[in-house]
Protein 1
Amino acid sequence: MVLGSANMDLVVRQPRLPEPGETMFGSSFSTVPGGKGLNQAIAAARVGGSVAFLGAVGGDAFGRELRETLQAAGVDTDGIALVERPTGTAHISVLDGGENAIVVVPDANGVELPLDDVQRAAIRAARHLVVQFERPLPLVAEAVAFARSVGVTTVVTPAPVLPLPEDFLDAVDILVPNAGEARELAGLDDETDAARALSKRAGTVVMTRGARGALVARGGEIVEEVEPYAVTPVDTTGAGDTFTGVLVARLAAGASDPEALRAAAVAAAIATTRAGASTSMPTWDEVEPLL
Ligand code: RIB
C-alpha cells in the first residue's frame, strides 16, 4: 500500500539553471506521470508487486492520466480521492549530466483528508505501508501510526524533508532517506553519522547515496553497504522512488534483505539511464538478469 502524491511532471531539458531575471532556451519539454507516491507504486508493480495506491487528484486531464497510468501498471486505484483542486504538478529542470531541480505544487495532494474507515481497512490488509512527505504530514503520520498499531511494516521516504513530530521515527520500520535528507533529519554534517543516529529511532535505515550505492544502519551501527550498479545517467528523476518501490516489492515477495537491496540498487540505476520518472522504471525481466 502506497499512500502518497501523484503529480504531473512538467519536464524541461536545459543546459543549466537560469539566474534570477534571466531568460534562456531549453531543448525539450515533456509531461510525464510522477509524484513520489505514484512513482513508488509503479516501481513496485513493475517488478511484480501487488500494489494499491491511496492518493488525491483533481477532476482534470492530468488527474485522469495519472489514474490511467497507475491502472495500466496494474496498481489498484480505488483509494484515489477526487478533490476540488487541480491535480498536483512538479516543475522539473533536467540538466545536462542527468541531475535535476524540482519545484512541487501540491494542489490536490495537499488537501487535508482524514484517514477514513475504508482506508484503514485497506492499510490493515497490506504487508507494507509506504509513504513520503508530499501529502499533508498529519495524514502521513496518522497512517504510519495506524499501520504500526496493526502490525503492517512501515516504510518512509522522508522527502521533501520536513521537521517531524517528536515520536514519528519511532513508528518507522524502514526509513529510506537520501544522504542529504539523512543529514538534515539527524541534524548532523556527516552522512554516515546521520544514518547511525537515525537508526537508533527507526528500525532500519537504508540511506541511498546515488552513484555511491547505499548504506544500511540498525541500532546505531552500519550493518551493510550496498554496492552501486554503475551506469551513465541521463535523468536521475525518480531513481530514489524506484529504489524504495523495488526494495519493498522484493521484501514482500520474500527476498532476503541483501537480495532486495541489490535489486533496488540495480533497478534505480536502470531508471537513471532513461528519461522521466514513471517512464524510466524497469520490469523484473530487466532487473533479474543483472543481479
Ligand atoms: O522523486 C521524483 C518526483 O518528485 C517527481 O516525479 C516529482 O513529481 C516529485 O514529486
Note: The domain at 2-277 is CATH 3.40.1190.20 (UDP-N-acetylmuramoyl-L-alanine:D-glutamate ligase).
Protein 2
Amino acid sequence: MFVDDLLRNKRILITGGGTGLGKSMAHHFMELGAEVLICGRRADVLEETAKELAEATGGSIGWRPLDIRDADAVEETVDSFWQEAPIDVLVNNAAGNFLARTEDLSPRAVDAVVNIVLHGSAYMTLACGKRWIETKHKGTVLSLVTTYAWTGSAFVVPSAMAKAGVLAMTRSLAVEWGPKGVRLNAIAPGPFPTQGAWERLVPNEDLAKLWETRNPLGRTGDHRELTNLAAYLVSDEAGYINGDVITIDGGEWLAGAGQFNFANQLSDEDWEKISPKKGK
Ligand code: HXC
C-alpha cells in the first residue's frame, strides 16, 4: 500500500519489539526502509528477532535489553542509542496485562501493570522528547492504547487506568510539544491475536472465539492492517495528524456501546412484528 521507501531515513525505537505487535511493526517498518531499534526485557528474544528480521528484510536493526519500569535504565538505553545517531520515532508498544477480579489484586499486581504501561511509556517519551527539544530534532511518538482507555473495562482495571493515562499524555504533549516539532498519536487496536495477550487474557478457547468474533466484522484483525496504520502515522505523510487516537477494531467498541445494537439479534419475524406495514 505504500511506496517502498516510505520510512527511509527514519530511526524507529519500538519498546517490546521482540514479540507480538511490536515485532510485526518492526518487520514492516524495515520493509519500508526504516532503521529499527527494539528493546525488551529478554536479550535472547531480542537477539533472535533481530536476526530473523534482518534476514527477512535485508534491513538494519539494533537491540538492547531494557525493562522500561526502570527510569535510570531507560535513560541509559536511549542515551546509548542516541549516541550512535538521533532517534526519529518512538513507538510505545510494550505492555503488561492480565485478567483478574480487581478485589484479588495485590498492590504489587497493580504496580506490575501500571509501571510498565503508564510509567514506562512516560519515561520513554520523556527520554526521547527532551533530546528532540534540546537538539531541535523533529520527533514522533506513537503509543498503543486500547478502546477501554476511554470506556474503561472490568477485570483489566490497572491496564485501563494506565492506558487512559497514556492517552492523556498523548493529547497533552501533542499541544505542549507540537510547537517544538514533536507529534504524538495513539492507536487503539481491537483483537489482534498475539501469544502474549491471548495467554494472559483469554482463559479458554470458547471465550477466545467469542472475543475474536463479537465485533461487527466477525473476525480478528490482521497484523498487516495494524502495521499499515502505524507506518502511516509515524511517516511524514501523516505530518498534520497530532494528538489523536485512531481506533482499528472492526467496530468492536461501538458495537458494545449503542443502546439498540442488540437488535442485530432480531429475526425477520421480529422485524415484521414491529414494522408499520404489519397487517397491510
Ligand atoms: C492476579 C497477578 C496475576 C494474575 C501476576 N499477578 N499475574 N495477580 N492475577 N493473573 C501479580 C503477582 O502475583 C505479583 O503480585 C505481581 O502481579 C507481579 O507479578 P510478577 O509475575 O512478579 O511480575 P512480572 O514478572 O514483572 O510480570 C509482569 C506482568 C506479566 C504484567 C504480571 O504478565 C508480564 O510481564 N506481561 C508482559 C506481556 C503482556 O502482558 N502482554 C499482554 C499485553 S496486552 P504479588 O503481590 O503476588 O507479589 C495489552 C492490551 C490489551 O496490554 C488489549 C487486548 C486487545
Note: Residues 50 and 60 are 9 Å apart (CA to CA).
Protein 3
Amino acid sequence: MSEGNCPAPQHIAIIMDGNGRWAKKRHQPRFMGHRAGVKAVEDIVAHCVKLDVAVLSLFAFSSENWRRPSKEVSLLMELFALALKQQVKKLQKNNIRLQIIGDLDRFSAGLQKQIKQAQELTKNNTGLTINVAANYGGRWDITQSVKQLAEKVK
Ligand code: FPP
C-alpha cells in the first residue's frame, strides 16, 4: 500500500511540456526550463520508486520537435546525453529499467550508443520501468507495429 493508504497507479504517463513557459515566467532562457524539466523528472522517478509504480512513460521529444530552432534542438540533445551519462549508474543502483522508444536513427551515433548501453545495462532490472519517448510519433508507432506484424505473417 502506498502513501495515504491509496494504491499507487501501475502506469503513469507524462508529456514533458511547459518548460519554455516555466522559464519565461522567471525571465530565464528556454534552456533553463528544459534543465528544470530534467530535474523535475528526477523527483518524479524518486516518488515512483517510493510508491512502487510499475511503469513511468515520459513523452520527452516528439518527431515534430525537430522543427524547433537548431540551437534549441542541439541543446536538448546535449541535455539528453548528459542526463543519460549522469543517471545511468543511479538507475542501475535502484533496479530501474530504462527503455527509449521512438525512431532512434535520427539521433547522433554517439547518443545512439549511449542509449543502447543504458538499455543493455538496465534491461534485467525488475523495479520501475521508465519509457522515454524520443523522436516518437503516432504515425511512426503505427508503421512499426504494422511492419512487425507483416514480419510475423511472413
Ligand atoms: C516541451 O516544453 C519539452 C520539450 C520539447 C523537451 C523536454 C525534454 C527534455 C528536457 C530532455 C531532453 C530529452 C530528449 C529526449 C531530447 P516546451 O518547450 O514545449 O515548453 P512550452 O510549451 O512552455 O513552450
Note: The longest helix spans residues 70-93.
